[in-house]
Design goal:
five-stranded parallel β-sheet, alpha/beta, globular, seven-stranded mixed β-sheet, 15 strands
Length: 339
C-alpha cells in the first residue's frame, strides 16, 4: 500500500501529520502481509497527480490524496486503475458518488454528509412547523445549510435559510435581535445551526432554550481528553449534534483500541486534527479490508458506522453514519436512540 500525503512543510502539513499518525496507529495493530509506504508529495495539484500516477504503477492499493482539489484531479484524469481510498470529497457538480471511478472510495469527513444526516434525524423527531437553518457567510457553513435544506426538502420538510453577519468575529447583535423577534412571530419547529460552538452559544443566548436546536460536529470543540473540568459548555445543554465516535465515545471498543495522539503539555487538543487522526485509522482499516479481497463489508469505525463496497466491475459505495449526541452538563453525550 502507498499512503499519499502532502509533505510536512507545506500548507497541509498539520493535516497530513494527523492522518499519517492515524494510519500508522492502525497499521501497527493490523499489518499481516501488508507493506505500507508513505509517499510525500508537493502541495500543488500537478505534484499530487504525478505522485498518484507513479504510485499507481508500483502499489496494489493507494490511500490518498488528502486535498479536495487533488482528489478531483485524480477522478477527472481517468487513470484510477488500482483500489484508491481518497481522503477528501471531490469538488464535482451534482451527486459526486455517481461520477466516481469504480476503483475509488471517497472516505473524507464531510460537513455536507453531516448536514444530511442531521436532516434525517430531524425528520424522525420534529414537531409540525418550518425549520430555520442558520449560518454566517463562511463557506463551510453555507454549504452545510444548502445540504441540510436539500435533504430536508426531499423528506417533505419546510426550511427557511437565514444568514447572520459577523462584525468583529461575533454574531451581529441587531441580527440576533431580529432573529429572536422572527422566531417569536413565526414559531418555527426547530433550528439547524451550521455554526461553531462559540457562535452557537451566542445564538442560544439570544433565542432561548425552548426551541429544539441541532448542529454538526463543529459545535463540539472537545476531544476525548476531558481531564480539564473547565472544558464544558453548559450554555449548550439540550443541543443535539452528530460527531465521530472518536470524539464522543471513549468506551467504544473500536475507539479504545487505539492510542490518542500525543500533544504538548498544556495545549488544548485540536478537535479537527483529532478527527483527521481518526480518519487515518479508518482509512487504513478500509484499505486492509479491501486487501483481504472483501468487496463489501461493514466496519464499526472510529469515525462512525461504515458500509463499504468496492466490487470489481460492480458498484462502488461508501457510507458513514456518525454518532448522535446531546449536550448534558456541558459535554456532548451519545443519545440512547441512534437512528
Amino acid at each position: 500500500m502507498a499512503l499519499l500525503l502532502p509533505n510536512r512543510g507545506g500548507m497541509f502539513g498539520a493535516a497530513a501529520d494527523a492522518v499519517r499518525s492515524g494510519v500508522l496507529a492502525a497499521y501497527s495493530r493490523q499489518k499481516e502481509n501488508i507493506q505500507l509506504v508513505v509517499v510525500e508529495t508537493g502541495d500543488s495539484v500537478p505534484d499530487m497527480q504525478r505522485a498518484y500516477d507513479d504510485a499507481s504503477a508500483k502499489f496494489d492499493i493507494l490511500i490518498g490524496p488528502l486535498s479536495r482539489s487533488a482528489v478531483t484531479s485524480v477522478i477527472q484524469s481517468g487513470r484510477v486503475a488500482k483500489p484508491t481510498i481518497a481522503l477528501a470529497q471531490p469538488d464535482l457538480p451534482g451527486e459526486a458518488e455517481a461520477q466516481l471511478p469504480p476503483m475509488m472510495l471517497t472516505v473524507g469527513l464531510s460537513i455536507d454528509d453531516e448536514a444530511r444526516q442531521v436532516a434525517n434525524w430531524v425528520e424522525k423527531e420534529k414537531a409540525p412547523g418550518k425549520i430555520f437553518a442558520i449560518s454566517t457567510a463562511v463557506a463551510w457553513q453555507k454549504r452545510a445549510v444548502r445540504s441540510f435544506q436539500a435533504r430536508a426538502r426531499q423528506l417533505g420538510l419546510q426550511v427557511d435559510t437565514l444568514e447572520l453577519s459577523t462584525p468583529g468575529n461575533a454574531l451581529s447583535a441587531p441580527g440576533l435581535a431580529q432573529l429572536a423577534k422572527r422566531i417569536e412571530q413565526e414559531k418555527p419547529a426547530l433550528i439547524f445551526a451550521a455554526l461553531d460552538a462559540g457562535q452557537a452559544v451566542q445564538l442560544r443566548s439570544a433565542v432561548g432554550t425552548e426551541l429544539p436546536f441541532y448542529g454538526t460536529s463543529q459545535i463540539n470543540p472537545f476531544t476525548l481528553n476531558r481531564d480539564n473540568p473547565n472544558d464544558k459548555i453548559p450554555e449548550l445543554d439540550g443541543v443535539k449534534l452528530i460527531d465521530l465516535p472518536w470524539q464522543l465515545e471513549p468506551d467504544n471498543v473500536a475507539v479504545a483500541r487505539y492510542p490518542h495522539p500525543a500533544g504538548n503539555d498544556g495545549d488544548r487538543p485540536n478537535p479537527d486534527l483529532a478527527r483527521l487522526y481518526a480518519l487515518g485509522i479508518d482509512a487504513y482499516r478500509i484499505a486492509y479490508g479491501i486487501s483481504r479481497q472483501q468487496s463489501g463489508f461493514d466496519l464499526d469505525g472510529v469515525t462512525g458506522r461504515l458500509n463499504v463496497n468496492m466490487a470489481r466491475g460492480g458498484s462502488t459505495y461508501f457510507q458513514r453514519q456518525e454518532t448522535q449526541a446531546v449536550y448534558q452538563d456541558g459535554l456532548p453525550v451519545p443519545t440512547a436512540d441512534q437512528y
